[in-house]
Structure formats: C-alpha cells, structure tokens
Amino acid sequence: ILVGDEPRILEAVSKDSSSPGLPPSITIEHEPLCIGMEEPPSAVFRSKKRCSLAMSARLVAEGRAQAFFSAGNSGACMAAALHHLRALEGVDRPAIATLLPNALGWMLLLDAGANVDCQQHNLIEFALMGHVYAKSVMGKAKPKVALVSNGDEKIKGNTLTKSVASILELLPINYIGNIEGNALYSGKADVVVCDGFVGNVILKTSEGAAEFVQNTLKREIMRDPFSRLAGLMLKPAFRRARRVADYAEVGGAPLLGVRGGAVVGHGRSEELAVLNGIRRAAEGVSHHLMEETEALMKSCATAQPRKIQAL
Amino acid sequence: ILVGDEPRILEAVSKDSSSPGLPPSITIEHEPLCIGMEEPPSAVFRSKKRCSLAMSARLVAEGRAQAFFSAGNSGACMAAALHHLRALEGVDRPAIATLLPNALGWMLLLDAGANVDCQQHNLIEFALMGHVYAKSVMGKAKPKVALVSNGDEKIKGNTLTKSVASILELLPINYIGNIEGNALYSGKADVVVCDGFVGNVILKTSEGAAEFVQNTLKREIMRDPFSRLAGLMLKPAFRRARRVADYAEVGGAPLLGVRGGAVVGHGRSEELAVLNGIRRAAEGVSHHLMEETEALMKSCATAQPRKIQAL
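ok -> structure tokens follow
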C-alpha cells in the first residue's frame, strides 16, 4: 500500500517506462498532507494528525497493514509509531535498532536514540528484544548479546550498566558481558545494548571517525602526483570499501517492541534504500518478530518474577 | 628526576653510546618496587604503598617536583595522583583529558574515563578546567567549549546534559552548545565535555571505527594485483595518515583539577611518546595551569554564587 498524494504517486510511476502503471497487488491510500523534514516530530499527532505518516501508522494499528516503512522525518516516524502502535506486553519503552556492519557481517545496536534516559529495566528489555531480532530475523542461532561499557571486565561500568549486567546473566540469552567501543566492529557481539544517548554517540562518532580517516587519507594521497596516480588506480577498491557501510544496503532501522512493524529509513534514501527498507519491514512480519518478542517477554516475566518485578 | 630502580636506570643509560652517563641536571630517586600492568590500581595505595609510581606522586605532593609522568599502569597512575595530590579548591572530581586530532589541529576531550557516574556540577567543572587548559596550554585565545549530546539542537540531550547546558551558558567561557559525534573530528570544538563513561565510548569507538575502515580498505586493496600495486605505491601516504592520530605525538593525557601535574602515558610508549609525555607535564607547569584553573574556579563561584551553590 503506497500512502501519499495519489496524483504525485501516479505521476512518479508513469515516469518509469518499464512499468505501465501500478501492478494490481499495489494499492494507494490517498493522503496529500505530509510532515516536512524540519517540522517537530510531535506535529504527527498534533497539528498534522492527518498526514501520510500518521495514516501509515494507523493502517498498521487497524490491522489493514502489518508493518510500515518511511524515509521521511525520522523523529516524526518514531512518534507516529509510538503514538499509534501500542507497546508489546512487558515492554516499557520500544527501541530503535540499527544494523551496523562488522568484521564478520552485521550486528544490531539498540537503543539507537529513541530513549536518552534509561533505567535498568529498559536496558534489559532492549537486550531481550535484540536477542529475538538477531535470532528470528538475522538468523543467528545463539546471538551473542553484549552491554556497552567502559571496559571488558565485569567490574567496569557505571552504576546503571553494572546493575543491568548482574541481571542479564540470569536471562535465557547468550549474554557475553561488557563490550568496549574498540571491539564493536570486530564481530565479538551480534547484539549491542546501550541507552539511546550512548547509542547515538556510538553511531555518530563512528561516522565522524570514519570520515576523518577517509579525509586524512585523501589529503595525504593528493599531496604528490605519484600518490594521486595510485589513488586513481584504487578508486574501485575505495568504492567497494565504502559500500560496506552503506545505509542503502540496510534500508532502515526497525522499531522494536511495538504491536506491528515500523522501519525508519534515512532521509536521503533512494531506490535501493527504499527497497531494502520495505524488505526489512516485511522480514520482521514473516519471521514473526512481534510474536516471538512477546513470548520471550512473557517467559522471562514468569521465570524470574521476583527479579523482573524488582526492576 | 627519574624514579625507579637505580641500577636498571643506569644500565639503560649506559647503553646509549651518545651520552656517557646522566647529565648533572638529571637525578635518580631509587625505588625498586613497581606496579605491574595487570595489578589492581588500588595496589598503589594499599599493598604497594612503596613503589616508583607512588613515590613520583609523593614527590609532587611534597613540592620536590611540580609534575610527574608515567607510562605504567594507567589506573594505578590515576589512583596515585588522586590519592597523593589534593583536588584544587572548587573541584569535586579531577578529570582525565585526552588530546585528539581533528580537521583543524587538536581538541581536548574530558572526562576520558576517570568518572563514569557524573552529576551536573562535575560536567560544569570539566568545562571550566578544559577551557583553562585549551587557553593556557594549547594557546587557543577563545576556546570553543561544547557538550556531547545526541543532537546539535538545544532541545537535544538527556536529563543530565540538558541541565548542564543551561548553566554552561551563564559561565565566562565560549560555550558553543551541543556537539554530536559526527562533528567531533571537524574542528567545531576545542574542548569537548562529557562524563567518563561517554568519554570512554567516544575514544574507543573512534579507535574501533578507524580500524574497521582501514581493515575494510586493506581487504579491498588486496583483492587484485592491480590494486595491490597501487596500494604499495601509497604506503608512504598511508604511513603519514596514520601518524595524524599517533599517541606518540601526544605523549599522554593530563589529569586536570589536582594540585600539581600528572600526565598518564600509554602503556606501549616508546622514546618519542615518553619525551612528549614529559613535555606535556612540563607545559602544564610553565603555563601555570594549576593557578589559572584555581583562579577561574574561584571567580565562577564568586560571580554565580546562587547558581554554583545550587548545583
């Protein structure tokens, strides 16, 4: 179901000479209003209750769709999902999960920015939700779950992470302990758990550091004609290396812990990114992410009633 | 003053054929005991009260030296400084400051790991101490001080950083607002403030991300003989690029906020790193870092008594 301004959708479709019109399996829900990239996220349930984003979330809430994807205003996308889709039983705060490349493939980082102030039970829920996603959607038999800290050793961490670590050890997941930033990209963990503030720091610092390395290298390569020539020869290798961390390959970040699926895409998404974002949303549905998550949440609440209630 | 096992120091000196013995300006304080790299930091004031590290800190505390540098056990180095050197007036928690390269030169990040649980007044003190270091030691006329957050906008941040931001605006420093990870290496800020947990995440994630970029690039370069040849041609450029982030150029991380100077070096320090580490320690003394810091702390406490007392 394409949600948006029908005339503009049909116009875009007609430009593609390979497809004369929409295939019959694709329908359109007409909603001309949309949220701008600079508008406050809360507009989606305040001044612009009627907009394509809100309608997408409502389609899922009403059971007419099972998941939605948007590459629009990320904050508004989150807000629409949180406002219209209820949290799963046992989940206090849904989390944004980001797929990141590492030396062995892909890992899931959560929370990537939805919850900047977290309590113990939030991080524990993130660990459980991340475990389910890595197992059912990413196909990892026994996902390695790690907690971001300032050292590998058990004694490292702040008050919050140390209290969380002692509970993660009791849960029916493959908790491997603390992970420090320098091991993030080694493939040591499949699921990396942290609060949304730290998650944002990790994502953005990685981006900044990678860019700094590339710019430094570029500057040194441009320093003399001999290096410049070698640099030209390496263009295809550089291009292939860049593709490893390309958001278009991922498509979007799934919102975990809500009833229904929601995937938040990058504002600069083009065809490939949108295709992969929709694929990501469909994956969650076909792998019963929601049902599996709810089942684990329930079994943990039953198995560790005192612990979980004490959180 | 070289602190350590005298026979071993003299033996090391005698191996250097260019210098027949120590110059008269250099003396030795004999202390054969030392803290191993794997020993717990607290050993420095518990089981090994007598050791070269503790003696170095005591020399500063007693006024026989003005600063010390060590490339030994970092935790123990911190512990020795905190145990023997008193905190400056107005400073609740001293901080480890790290010099990091950016697109325009160098910036100072603090706290880099000494304090994993911070309150409002700790981050404010870090901002003030960082300001003084950047101004007096790094020679920045009007250092740009920024607070690590999950977005540039004023409304972004967690409960702690938002409350800190509103106070930083009132202080006599050039506070430029929030900084997000992706802008860290751009040169936007001269002083970057965060708690020690986040500081460690930034340092280690940068390390991990940079390594991942380099390894990915290397793998793509090794893929075919043509790229491998170009890669060989670029060896000098790669080497120059690596040097930009070489800890040996920095020498060590200064501990700010204590009476006397302390610089913590990397455990793998060789000649250049040790030389620069000692230079860093001397710099703090010759630029009156301690006196300038104390003066600013006092003037802020006088100018904003209600605010500072309310922290």
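Strands of chain B lie at 2-4, 28-30, 67-70, 95-102, 105-110, 144-148, 174-179, 191-193, 253-256, 261-264.
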